[in-house]
Specification:
By secondary structure, this protein is an alpha+beta fold. It is built from seven helices and 18 strands. The structure holds flavin-adenine dinucleotide.
Length: 309
Amino acid sequence: MAARHCSELELLQFDDSFPADVRLNEPMSRHTTYRIGGPAHAYVEAQSVGALNTILRICRDENLAWCAVGKGSNLLVSDEGYDGVVIVLAGEFRNWRFDEEHCRVTVGAGTILSRLVQEVFHRGYSGMEFAVGTPGTVGGALRMNAGTRDDWIGNRVVSVTVMSPEKGLVRYAGEDIQWGYRSTSFLPNEIIVECELQLERALSGNINEKMRALLERRKASQPLNYPSCGSVFRNPEGHSAGALIEEVGLKGHTHGGAQISTKHANFIVNVDNATAEDVRQLIALAQSKVNERYGIELQTEVKFLGFED
Ligand SMILES: Cc1cc2nc3c(=O)[nH]c(=O)nc-3n(C[C@H](O)[C@H](O)[C@H](O)COP(=O)(O)OP(=O)(O)OC[C@H]3O[C@@H](n4cnc5c(N)ncnc54)[C@H](O)[C@@H]3O)c2cc1C
């Protein structure tokens, strides 16, 4: 009988000396704030640049699709899962160092954004208040240019280091990256690994006050008691996506276990074991109703993984 061939990735699962945690058939519902998503062929937490390099090399050799993921707070993964390798940055990608002289912080892309916000605040710097209460990682925030209506992370970026299978590590100056409303010019095959952010010295009372006000606004307007991905749609120029969806009468509308939130119509929440398909149906319904009534095509802010189209 012929011995079954084990792929290099499968073997890494059992290699304790390799600086990455490799799990096969990992349910992505464990790694998205929606708590939705079927299994990824492999889920890899890379702890070092060397490990990341090896994983990318294996993906190329074994012809496996891959995708960098942070905390899955802006991600809808299909019910069938993802037939590829989900790459998450851990270990050395979660470090930071402050440059007191230039008021800057260099931070790994796997760092949880809220931990950075707190650290910046405790050291008496201003500049990251806009991100208070935004879930996810620094890498996800950079990729999405996360922010509020008044400020976004791109405004703080001195440089970003990315890794791609073709070019290895490349450092971009902040001004060479295009930062738009929830959009950036990073390429799909670039994994953001580190960035340098410009901060300012400020009085901690002022920073605290600003963050408290932002958190209160968030609590008052967002359905934080249910799993979600935050805003599903980008606001069309001159409009609020939430207001448009409310105006076409969809606030509170449900499909399976998903609901267009009764609190904020740009949130689709997982109220009762929703599937990705439930969420997709509501997305399509909101898009068609708003288009029908106003001729506006709502564009999604949420990213999709494991879907055909
Ligand atoms: C309750 C709630 C409130 C939210 N509020 C806000 C808000 O106020 N403002 C806002 O902008 N967003 C908000 N969001 C959305 C989300 O938190 C942000 O988009 C966040 O920055 C995503 O980070 P993440 O690490 O979870 O990325 P993920 O959701 O894991 O990934 C998002 C995208 O980034 C890519 N990506 C992730 N990491 C990397 C990397 N290292 N290199 C390259 N690509 C990468 C992924 O492939 C994917 O395309 C909210 C979400 C929730 C659930």
